[in-house]
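Lecture notes, unit on protein representations.

Consider one protein chain, 276 amino acids long.
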Amino acid sequence: MGKAADSRGAPKFVSEALATAVEAGCTGMRILRADSQFYNAGVIAACHRAGAHFSITTGMNPSIKRAVHSIPDDAWQHINYPTAVPDPATSELISDAEVAEIPEYTAFASRKKAEQVTARLIVRRARDLAKPATVGEQGELFPVWRYHPFFTDNPAPMLQAEREHRHHAVVEQVIADSKASALAHLPSGHFQANAAWLTLWAMAYNLLRAARTLASAFHAKATTPTLRAHLVRVPARIARSARRLTLHLPQRWSWQDPWTQLFAAVHAPPKAALRT
């Protein structure tokens, strides 16, 4: 038996998540943000039953592709992301792109009328960084774009809806990074153990984020495994002499300056003893 596809239990999962949000005291507009595995009629129907909006990545199926290529060139608007997101194909950070929308796109057109959904198709396009801008001495004849569409009934203006949808990529990066930390121990068969690991993860995550900011500009964007390798697992030797501890660090250590800067910020050298 292999793993079941995410879409199999997606409608039930969405219904439970939206109901839990209400029980937890959430008020105001609820918007489901999800990846393309959740792009199906059942998920959208679950959102409608719960009185929630949806914002779901679609992928580039033939119908979506035809709709995207029908967008006129003058319809694209520039967008800048305060928090850059990584390109899924090249891992390059994307901070600038262009956005356009089709106000009324009918999804699931092959299904019966009651299951068809008409809403906004918003598309972000970014230059394909995997392809060089020039080949030899001749520049590119036309730009090559990567398209990232999503289907939504979010009533917000187009650029705001785009930013809100793409922000879920930041959340996914946090989850992926957390699996390299204490969340790797979940799930456990004991509720108390799960609660303990979750608490430890939150503490470690926040402390590491503060530490990386103090260390260097490079480490300010580093992931948990990198921080652990550079700043936590320090190749040092502790010596004790005359009731004093001395930390002997290796010579020509690549991360000496960031570690020293972090150490000085959180543990300043002791003041000289006062003599009377």
